[in-house]
Backbone:
């Protein structure tokens, strides 16, 4: 078995949000996507912290984009998933599917 | 709603307490959301959460600096205790105390305090210098300039801190607690001086890296 660093739940959510957003993935849309899809409040600082961890692992890349007046002249930081990151998400999906399969507690809807 | 209505104190805190270069995009995002109708309370909560998260990240990244400061503080305090109780330093102190007793009070007390403080600062700085050298070699970032820089930061903190410690022990601590409080203050001082000495250059480096990135 190869030595690998697993994604945490929040890191996985951030990766999935990046995949859903495509080219428009900077702080605000990522933050909104996680809030809307997961139905819970998150901190923008935590989103950045997760993305920086993912960048350090090589799963995510970032670029500085344009600045707008509504941002007080501050530039956006765009994130995108790397090939390594996409492979990691696929492996995670495969592993989770296998783990979920055949659990009677999770079958039949509400507990 | 104008830009200036975003809580400027929260913006200032976030800019000041997070590494340079890391907070820019985050501040832009916060302002963008604020302009779209989020409340000042939301802005404050997000800014404070970002500061806490950033501080946690910094602690995680600087575990080596914290570990070094803790370990070397113990080494310095044990070595200094050994030196203080050794016969050579006792002879030296007895000779100096004998010499100063020829002067009238308060000059004798001033000479004794100055001498004791100088010996303490010199010993702590020497021990700190050795430790900082080992730390820089271990982290593969040793240069003479860095060693002198970290050592001078430690020296300034140790010097000012020892004056503060001496004044607190003499004027604010009851006689039967002097030994206990003195050793706590001395440990804290050595720990803080070592931690700040290795922390400031590494924060500056990480700031420079994130800006160049």
Residues:
């Amino acid at each position: 078995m190869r030595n690998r660093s697993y994604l945490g739940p929040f890191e996985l959510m951030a990766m999935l949000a990046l995949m859903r957003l495509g080219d428009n993935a900077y702080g605000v849309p990522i933050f909104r996507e996680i809030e809307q899809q997961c139905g819970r409040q998150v901190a923008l600082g935590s989103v950045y912290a997760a993305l920086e961890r993912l960048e350090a692992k090589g799963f995510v890349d970032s670029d500085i984009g344009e600045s707008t007046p509504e941002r007080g002249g501050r530039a956006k930081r765009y994130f995108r998933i790397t090939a390594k990151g996409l492979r990691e998400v696929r492996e995670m999906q495969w592993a989770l599917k296998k783990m979920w399969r055949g659990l009677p507690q999770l079958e039949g809807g509400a507990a | 709603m104008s830009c200036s209505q975003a809580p400027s104190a929260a913006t200032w805190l976030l800019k000041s307490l997070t590494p340079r270069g890391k907070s820019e995009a985050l501040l832009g995002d916060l302002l963008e959301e604020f302009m779209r109708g989020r409340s000042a309370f939301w802005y404050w909560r997000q800014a404070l959460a970002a500061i806490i998260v950033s501080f946690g990240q910094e602690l995680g990244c600087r575990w080596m600096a914290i570990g070094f400061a803790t370990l070397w503080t113990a080494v310095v305090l044990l070595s200094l205790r050994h030196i203080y109780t050794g016969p050579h330093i006792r002879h030296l102190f007895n000779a100096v105390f004998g010499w100063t007793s020829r002067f009238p009070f308060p000059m004798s007390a001033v000479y004794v305090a100055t001498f004791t403080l100088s010996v303490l600062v010199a010993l702590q700085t020497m021990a700190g210098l050795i430790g900082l050298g080992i730390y820089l070699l271990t982290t593969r970032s040793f240069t003479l300039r860095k060693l002198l820089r970290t050592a001078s930061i430690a020296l300034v903190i140790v010097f000012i801190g020892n004056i503060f410690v001496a004044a607190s022990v003499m004027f604010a601590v009851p006689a039967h607690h002097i030994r206990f409080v003195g050793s706590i203050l001395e440990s804290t001082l050595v720990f803080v001086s070592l931690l700040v000495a290795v922390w400031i250059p590494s924060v500056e480096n990480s700031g420079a890296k994130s800006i160049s990135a």
Remarks:
- Residues 4 and 88 of chain A are 9 Å apart (CA to CA).
- Chain A is about 50% helix and 15% strand.
- Chain A touches chain B at residues 26-28, 31, 43-46, 48-49, 52, 64, 67-72, 74-77 (CB under 8 Å).
